[in-house]
# Entry
Amino acid sequence: MLIWNKDVDSKPYDRLKKVPRPGHSDLPAWFKYGGFNDPRGGGHFSARLTTTFVMGGAIAKKLLSYVFRTEIIAYVTEIGGIKSNDVDFETAKKLRYSNEVRCPDRVAASKMKELILEEKGKGDSVGGIIQCIAKNAPVGLGEPIFSALDCDLGGALFAIPAVKGVEFGSGFHAARLRGSENNDQYTVVGKKIVSKTNNSGGILGGLSFGMPIVSRIVFKPPSSIPKTQTSVNLETMKEEELIVTGRHDPCVLPRAVPIVESVVALVLADHAIRAGLIPPVIGKH
# Structure
């Protein structure tokens, strides 16, 4: 699989070799690599590298769908403090690509778009939250202790640039609940054991147990903004003002939806292969 980059413009990064951008990896990378870090687009810290996540994720999603009928969808639930209404899986699946911000709540999506354009006009940016749901994942994915499913999912999701938080199920809200409220009680539907609620986000003890795997991922506002900010010249060690120019998004969430889906698919497929649930050869010769 190959993607050619035919629209390269590195000129806006010429100055950044000596003046690190606030909010970016420029400064710690400069120290770590003794000044040999690549400042063009952040080098190997760039979100451009998530293209490879999507390439691999496309294959992982096909494997999971073919073997287990697993479906993985991600969509925007919040941008800049504007929250969408909760929707069910099928509605989210149907409507998430019906607008430019990838939010299945069209009323909230319209407000989100207005806010993004408003902040862009001010030379600023906004962050938000993406929710991802994996349905029909096999039971028992995950390995104790350090390869627990939520450990690996969390680590992989944090590999996406701009991600600053990951939660599963009730997540941080669980801190405000009682055990009697947060526990997912079991029942039988047909001949299958299911839980009445899904505060666990489909993962218990680091293992999937058949309920939808639900995660929410926090993205910070993009750091590259055309506002005057303060930085330091690494040669003179004196404070300088900096305006970041170039082609930058005022909000990364619409672009991040397929990246989140792909990362989750890669981790689930990897665990399924490790568990022997996906054979080395699939289909007829």
Notes: Residues 32-274 form a domain with the Chorismate synthase, AroC fold fold (CATH 3.60.150.10). The chain has a mean pLDDT of 93. The first helix runs from residue 26 to 32.
